[in-house]
Amino acid sequence: MKGFNASHHNMGLMINEDGSGHVSGGESLSSPHNFETRRADPKYGNIISDDQLSTLDIKDLNRILRDQGLPKETIEKLKQRRRTLKNRKYATDCREKKDTEVSHLQETQSDETSTIEELEVANSILQKEIDELKRRYQAVVRHAKVENIRITERNVPLSGLSSNTNAQITHSS
Question: 3-state secondary structure string, the chain?
Fold first, then answer.
């Protein structure tokens, strides 16, 4: 018997004729850890795939590597490779999170810009109404002066008008 593969699609231990073993194959396509297809490092691919290296629990990995009787340097290189793979995944996750956040902020900015534009239009309309009311008020004040109607001061200032137009009109007898 050349070897016994514990599982074709799932991680398994390949037992050779001489009793030595190594981790076989890759994870199934339905595995939650199969976030991307990766090839095994050529130096260590016959020992363990990159997917398995990055997804195995560290205790399980240590047990498998210890059981295989690998040299300390090889184990250290595999652990270094694991850290590199995990760092790549973390970097990818961070990049995706940042991209999502940037997209969300751009949508928020677009919404806020639309709100500002709507408020500017409403403000412009209100400013025109205020200008029209000022124009009418000034006409009333001019008419009061012509008709010799006494004007008393108001408590509400109107910017841009002279102080004597900022008044209440009362008829003098």
Answer: CCEEECCCCCCEEEEECCCCEEEECCCCCCCCCCCCCCCCCCCCCCCCCHHHHHHCCHHHHHHHHHHHCCCHHHHHHHHHHHHHHHHHHHHHHHHHHHHHHHHHHHHHHHHHHHHHHHHHHHHHHHHHHHHHHHHHHHHHHHHHHHCCCCEEECCCCCCCCCHHHCEEECCCC
pTM greater than 0.85 (yes/no): no
CA distances from 44 to 10, 84, 116, 133 (A): 18, 14, 59, 84
Question: How many domains, in total, are found in the chain?
Answer: 1
Amino acid at position 91, single letter:
A
Residue 131 belongs to a domain: no
Q: Which residues form the domain of 27?
A: 3-102
pLDDT tens-place values along the chain, 173 residues long = 333 333 333 334 343 444 344 444 443 333 334 333 345 556 655 788 999 999 999 999 999 888 988 999 999 999 999 999 999 999 999 999 999 999 999 999 999 999 999 999 999 999 999 999 999 999 999 999 999 988 877 755 656 555 454 555 555 54
In a domain, 77, yes or no: yes
- Say if 117 falls within a structural domain: no
